Amino acid sequence: MSTMTVILIVVAVAAIGFAVFMYYEKRRTLRLQSRFGPEYDREVDRHGTPRKAEAELIERQKRVERFHIRELSHTESDRFSEAWRSVQARFVDDPRAAVAEADRLVREVMTTRGYPMGDFEQRAADISVDHPRVVKNYRAAHDIAARDATGRSGTEDLRQAMVHYRALFDDLLTSTHIHHTEEVRR
Q1: What whole-number distance in Å separates Cα of residue 86 and Cα of residue 178?
Q2: 179 in a domain, yes or no?
Q3: Over the chain (186 residues), what is each successive 10-residue block's mean pLDDT?
Q4: In the chain, how many domains are there?
């Protein structure tokens, strides 16, 4: 074979290898975007590049796969639902206490399901793996509660916090945990 033929073969193999690499990268990106929804975009904004955001999201998945997440029993679900109704009823008389209790109740459901209770950002990151569509509600409710702790929120803000907590609470109570073992791999 001539030198030119060898060079063309090497270039062709490299081009095919690059095309295959790009194809798998694109598929990984699409799977992550589909899986994490708005959380994907949030992480891209936070990290500045899709590659760094995707690495973070993949690490979250690996971390959560090590947890023993379980569904709630009917008894537990009924108990939590009753507790939520009680918290919601309390809102009229004491919105601040109701929001604090809603946060505590959400954390209790998370603990019962098997999520570890680290700091808020770690909890939100963990929840985003199995509940990506409602984690934004958790962050919004937490932000309102934090503002309220410094006296910078009103009753309407607290009502919004309850709505946000309720969205996550409902998702935690009704969702089925599915381990995503075939999920995004590098």
Answers
A1: 30
A2: no
A3: 87 89 85 89 92 93 92 95 96 94 95 91 92 91 91 92 95 67 38
A4: 2
